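Morning!

This is the sequence you dropped in the shared folder:
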Amino acid sequence: MADVIIRKRGKVGQITLNRPSALNALTYDMITSIEKALIEWEDDKNIAAILVDANGDRAFCAGGDILDLYKQGQAKNYKFGQKFWADEYRLNARIDSYSKPYVVFMQGFTMGGGVGISCHGSHRIVGETSRIAMPECGIGLVPDVGGSFLLSQKSINLGIYLGTTCSQMDANDSIFAGFADYFVPEDRWEKAKCQLIETGDPEFLKGLNVSLSESGLSKNFVLIEEVFSESDHKSLIEKMSKYSELASALRRLKKASPLSIFVTTKMLRMPEIASSVKSALEIEYRYTARAQEFSDFQEGIRATVIDKDKKPNWKHLSLDSVSQEEGLWFLTPLDSKLELRL
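The structure's back. Tokens below.
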């Protein structure tokens, strides 16, 4: 069975991720197959909407298949990663600007690359098991696949909190932060998909949406805004340590790559990031194009996926040791031939 199942059903083009044993992690071939289908269906008058879902209960998509990226990085074949990310970002940009409704059902984990093929859609459905996150700082990367744009929309400071602490959002938090639109109980999803296949019109989803109580992020929003307005890293950690509500977030921040945290914070404060998904993707690519050779990415994958010792040897021991010159270099334009233009 293919890793991604692509077919026409009724009035929709349906894309089903089909690597449940790998939490539906995206391979390069899956990315290109999805984009090919979207290009074909955009001009197909018989296709009224796109339906995206995934097999398995544990995850919609837990990210990109980083094992190949690690192997190629170890072999110093950095062009592999550059092409992977460039083509993935082109798909993300296409989804953001797609002319037909793009309806996605996100059960379980949706992280990293999974966010890129879901949260730029027009109709984003979450349920009881949904957990959405941008955990890239934990593996030596920065929020990408247009995630920096999403993180910037509710509030820059909230985005910095979510991005640098690798925090997971439940369905309620995801809607509050702008990563999802509707909460629909998961036992109603199959019926909803059938109705979409039959009609091609997702407007009925509004009637299925269930209002939720105040989210955890909403309750702590004022506190997060105040603490993460702090630009000095040492002062930020001192402020976080004063609040029990931020204790687990502080532990995650201390485990993440100092370089990634530094660049993420600077990146999310750039006006271009909040202006459009395309602009955000182009800036994110400046980091990822350099990631395999110069960042903590290879070491982060080694510690998390390869050796699984959870003890990465980051390039910097603390945020204070990351120089402005080094950190900002990752956001400077690439060579004109390498710079991503969407």
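Headline: The two ends are 33 Å apart (CA to CA).

More detail when I'm at my desk.
O.
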